[in-house]
Amino acid sequence: MSIHIDPLEKRWIGVIAGILIFTWAIIVYYAAADNVRPPSNVEVIDSSKLHLASGVGGGEFMEKNLGVKEDAQGNVTVTMVAARYGFYPLHIQVPFNKPVKFRIASFDVLHGMLVPFSNMNVMVVPGYISEITTTFTRLGKSPLICHEYCGQGHAYMYGMIDVVPEDKFKPKTGVK
Amino acid sequence: MAISRTTENVISADTVKTGNRLAFWNFFVAFAAFALALPMGAYQVLERSGFFPAIDNAAVYYASTSSHGVLMAYVLSTFFIMGFGYHTAIHSLKMKLWSPKFAWTGFGIATFGVLLAAVPLLTGHASVLYTFYPPEMAHATFYIGATLLVVGSWFWAADMIIQMMLWRRQNPGKPVPVIMFGTVMNALLWLWTSAWVASEVVFQLIPAALGFNDTLDPGLSRTLFSGTLHAIVYFWLFPAYLVMYSILPKEAGGKLFSDEMARVAFVMLFIFSVPIGFHHLYMDPMQADGWKLLHMFGTFLVAAPTLLTGFTVIASMEIAGRLRGGKGLFGWIKALDCKNPVVLAGCLSLLMLTVGGWGGVINASYALDSLIHNTQWIPGHFHLIYGGTTVIMYFAAAYWLWPKITGRHLISLKFARVQLWTWFIGMWVTTMPWHYLGLIGQPRRVDTLNAYQQAPAELLAAWDIPMIIMDVGALVLLFSGLLFVYILVRSSMAGRVAEEAEREVEYAEAIHEPFHVPNVLNSMAFWNWAMFFYLIASYGYPVLQFFFIGTPESILWGE
Question: Among partner residues B260, B441, B554, which is closest to A117 by beta-carbon distance?
Answer without folding.
Answer: B441
